[in-house]
TrEMBL record:
It comes from Anabas testudineus. InterPro entries: DSRM_RDM1, Nucleotide-bd_a/b_plait_sf, RBD_domain_sf, RDM1, RDM1_RRM, RRM_dom. One of its GO terms (cellular component) is cytoplasm. Transmembrane segments: none annotated. This is RAD52 motif-containing protein 1. Residues 16-99 form the RRM domain. The lineage of its organism: Eukaryota, Metazoa, Chordata, Craniata, Vertebrata.
Length: 280
């Protein structure tokens, strides 16, 4: 039986990347994007689809970069779409990228919150997993609030209070049909000038949302999706040194037990990647 394993990390391998060209200028970029997603997502979940116009010295038209999470699905898509017209009147060229992966991209990076949701929903369905917040707590110390007085060196327009807010979150991720449960945690903070209660409330709401998303991302980094040849999906967990699996949280987050630097504040990974690929 054919088996494929997907992780919730950014795919950087060239054998997961397709290069499509000879796209006619019959449609706009957004229309081409929708058609490419419709065709290639039938082979498996997509990490990235990017459409670009041909260089000025080339004939009018477009080319596209398509990234899969699975090398096997990328290869199957290439074999079954190369030379087919698909959504236009002339055939398209579809090749696997042969561009060498830079060394600095080799370490795996967690997917963004949006990509985690897309991959989980695509493979497991919207009812195939659940997330529950175990602890969401403000960790701000009173000493981190500094008055900004009128006439002071730190005075800003309209006055206000310089504040630092910090929130921590512990979240449980469950896969009810597979009998698997894991947890993730995160801490976020932000420094700002508070000019009124509305500003403080907005900041608190925003940080609570961000810390929940980061905790979910951290939980997904321990998850492996095992795709079987019969189109069934299994869920397994990988044990990591940073995995947080206490029996009882007691409403307290032990911040020093974690390393948060590996989780960037926001990601749109791959969107600005270069497309000067060589192909096989």
């Amino acid at each position: 039986m054919e088996v494929d394993i997907l992780e919730f990390v950014v795919p950087v391998e060239n054998n997961k990347t397709l290069f499509v060209w000879d796209i006619q200028p019959s449609f706009t970029e957004p229309q081409i994007y929708v058609r490419l997603v419709g065709v290639f997502s039938s082979f498996g979940p997509l990490y990235l689809v990017k459409v670009s116009p041909n260089a000025p010295l080339h004939p009018p038209g477009f080319f596209a970069l398509i990234k899969f999470y699975s090398a096997a699905q990328a290869l199957k898509a290439q074999r079954l779409t190369d030379g087919c017209s698909l959504f236009q009147s002339s055939p398209l060229k579809v090749r696997l990228s042969s561009k060498q992966t830079p060394h600095f991209l080799s370490p795996s990076r967690p997917l963004s919150h949006t990509h985690c949701l897309e991959l989980a929903n695509h493979c497991l369905g919207f009812n195939g997993w659940t997330s529950d917040i175990l602890t969401l707590k403000e960790l701000t110390n009173e000493e981190e609030e500094v008055e900004v007085g009128v006439g002071g060196e730190d005075e800003e327009a309209g006055g206000g209070r310089r504040m630092t807010l910090r929130f921590g979150c512990l979240l449980q991720l469950s896969f009810p049909y597979h009998g698997q449960t894991t947890r993730g945690a995160a801490v976020v903070e932000d420094s700002f000038t508070c000019t009124g209660p509305d500003v403080l409330l907005q900041k608190r709401c925003k940080l609570q949302k961000v810390v929940r998303e980061k905790a979910l991302v951290q939980a997904f980094t321990t998850v492996l999706l095992i795709l079987l040849g019969n189109e069934k999906v299994m869920v397994e967990l990988k044990q990591t040194p940073d995995q947080f699996l206490p029996e009882h949280t007691e409403g307290v987050i032990q911040v020093n037990e974690f390393s948060w630097s590996e989780f960037p504040a926001d990601e749109d990974e791959g969107i600005n990647e270069e497309c000067d690929l060589t192909v096989t």
